[in-house]
Prior knowledge:
Layout: H1 2-15, E1 19-22, H2 27-40, E2 44-50, H3 56-69, E3 72-77, H4 84-87, H5 93-112, E4 116-118, H6 132-139, E5 144-145, H7 147-150, H8 155-164, H9 190-205, E6 211-216, E7 219-224, H10 229-234, H11 236-245, E8 250-253, H12 265-271
Parallel strand pairs: 1-2, 1-4, 2-3, 4-5, 7-8
Antiparallel strand pairs: 6-7
Helix pairs in contact: 1-2, 2-3, 2-8, 5-6
Amino acid sequence: MVTEKIELIKEAIKARGSTIIAFSGGVDSATLAALAFEVLGKKALAVTINSPLFPRKQLEIAVETAREIGIEHKILSFSQLSLPYFSANTLNRCYFCKKALLETLMDFAEKAGYDVVLEGTNFSEIHGENRPGYMAVQEAGEKVFSPFVEFNVTKEEIREAASELYLSAASRPSAACLATRIPYGQPITIESLQKLEKAEEFLFSLGFTQFRVRMHENLARIEVTQNELENVLLKREKISRHLKSLGFDYVTLDLEGFRSGSMDEPYTLKKT
């Protein structure tokens, strides 16, 4: 089934002539870039937007992944912190962010002579409780194409396709922008983003793979997978000491463990 969907996607991409791919280096955008490069060659360009929300380590991964695929890669700089509705961190924060990013990519595509922007939202994502970012994709119309949504390709199917393409991203843990670590209503600042990035860099250096450091005012709430809970407890003194050196007053461990979208839980639970 996934092979049939991938063939349909390649045909759809080829029909669009030339494309730029919104490229983070994650499994979704990496798979999309690999498929576009396969059918369009030099008419496909991977574009990464470097911003305060995008960890430096993720930028390095994006560069390495583009090189692995063989696709031409360009990095554009942009700061969402200049958007007042975004930095205020409202519930529809992702809408303003996605809209600004897509406008940046569409403007670049038009000036550089590319026909369409490809972006990697997948079919699994659009069924989430709070997905304001996808509204911005829909508003862009034909200038932006989301093949995985168009052909009902789930996250699991994308990983399967990435494995068949021998992409290193196939087993890479899912990533999300640093703003998702800050609860709605708490202003997003460059200082808070830098503090979160340094905290997560430290956990990564200790060998943790899938985790988040969530910021509640000046409290750090750490989420790790269930199989890494024991390890984080063994290293709790080292972790606490380092995170406090970054400026956190308190360091806590979330007993429910890692889960995507945990900042949405106070709002989704109210609906049930």
